[in-house]
Amino acid sequence: MGWFSRGPGRKRSKPSEGKVPSKRRRQLAGFRKLTRATKSGSKDVARPLKALEASAGRIANRLDSNARLLQNVPRIDTNMIIQNKLLRMIADDLLAAVSPRYSEPKRLFGPHAQVYSQNYEDAMIGEIFTRIGFGSRRFVEIGVEDGHQNCTRMLLEHCGFSGVWVEMDPEACARIRTRFAAYIESGRLVLVEGMATAETINDLIPPEFRDVDLVSVDVDQNTTHVWRAMDLKARVACIEYNAAFPPMLDIETPYEAETVWDGGHIYGGSLKAIERIGAGKQMSLVGCDLHGVNAFLIADSEDLSKFSAPFTAENHFEPLRLQLVSERGHRRVKAS
Predict the structure, then answer these.
(1) In whole angstroms, what is the distance from residue 76 CA to residue 79 CA?
(2) Per-residue pLDDT of the chain (336 residues; tens, 9 = 90+)
(3) Quick one: CA torsion of 119, 295, 226, 187, rounded to 10 degrees?
(4) Coil, helix or strand for 191?
(5) How many CB atoms lie within 10 A of CB 246?
(6) Are the CB atoms for 190 and 210 separated by under 8 Å?
(7) Which helix (H) or strand (E) covers residue 164, if one does?
(8) Residue 147, Ramachandran bin (φ over 0: left; ψ between -120 and 50: alpha; else beta)
(9) Residues 152/180, Cβ–Cβ less than 8 Å
């Protein structure tokens, strides 16, 4: 029932003027006085005009304040983005601090370092090599985008490694040729442009990179199939897994060479599938990153006693935590 609706046995009424705020009543009285004076031709309109001018000034000031507030909206939005990033990083640190799981000395969970990686792969890889040492200082990474952010750029630029990047996107490869020209010209970086499939992967990798310290595979849809087909020996492997599947399920997406990931939750393989494929390559699962994106394995010929056993998906599984993904530190510098 509205304010002016007629109730049972009641007459329609109008709001009492006593309900109007006193400031508003004074303004209304001034406007009415000005209207009467104007209609009667009276010359005594100075005071109402002055009051009207004052009201107009207040309205203008309020509009100016609103305009300044609107100008700050992008800044407010930027601040909110920064705060969200900080909250994600704090959540990461709190999770690591309060969970006994991450305080185990053999658990593969190093400092939250991000040199050029997205999911702390730099820290995880660094921690592994701290325990087992460097060997050939060679790497192969499949799926690097434009090289700005990946798993092996840190090794290339700061650890004296040489290696191979395989990327299918022509525009990304063009940027790599520009940004990393010095490494390519020196022979420390070999860029291979092409689509990695189970049928093509061994033709894409140069023969001199068949015995490496690290192999990394992240091609989304067919990651497990490509990794299984790779004919190379690696001491360490960083392999993307699909954390949508619980750790006890051994699942791989059906292989279709030309299929590209559609952004959905069905892609790659479960962590148990990674464990199984690794066992076939004489490698053991030793950990996953906190965000539930990559699995890390080391060759059985290395000292497994330095890592947390059992080397199973059930022990090392991390759920998908993409909401925590954030770039720590300063703006990433592009390679010259």
Answers:
(1) 5
(2) 333 334 444 444 444 444 444 555 565 565 566 556 555 555 555 565 566 556 655 655 565 666 665 566 565 566 666 566 556 555 655 665 556 777 788 998 756 677 898 888 999 999 999 999 999 999 999 999 999 999 999 999 999 999 999 999 999 999 999 999 999 999 999 999 999 999 999 999 999 999 999 999 999 899 999 999 999 999 999 999 999 999 999 999 999 988 777 778 889 999 999 999 999 999 999 999 988 999 999 999 999 999 999 999 999 999 888 766 655 444 445 554
(3) 60
(4) strand
(5) 14
(6) no
(7) strand 162-167
(8) left
(9) no
Of 140, 185, 148, 196, give the one whose Cα is nearest residue 165: 140
Q: Do 289 and 266 contact (CB within 8 A), yes or no?
A: no
Give me the sheet containing 138-142, strands edge to edge.
189-193, 162-167, 138-142, 211-217, 233-240, 294-299, 283-288
Amino acid symbol at 204: L
> Which amino acid is residue 180, in one-letter code?
F
Beta-carbon contacts of residue 148 (< 8 Å; ≥ 6 apart): 116, 175, 179, 332, 334
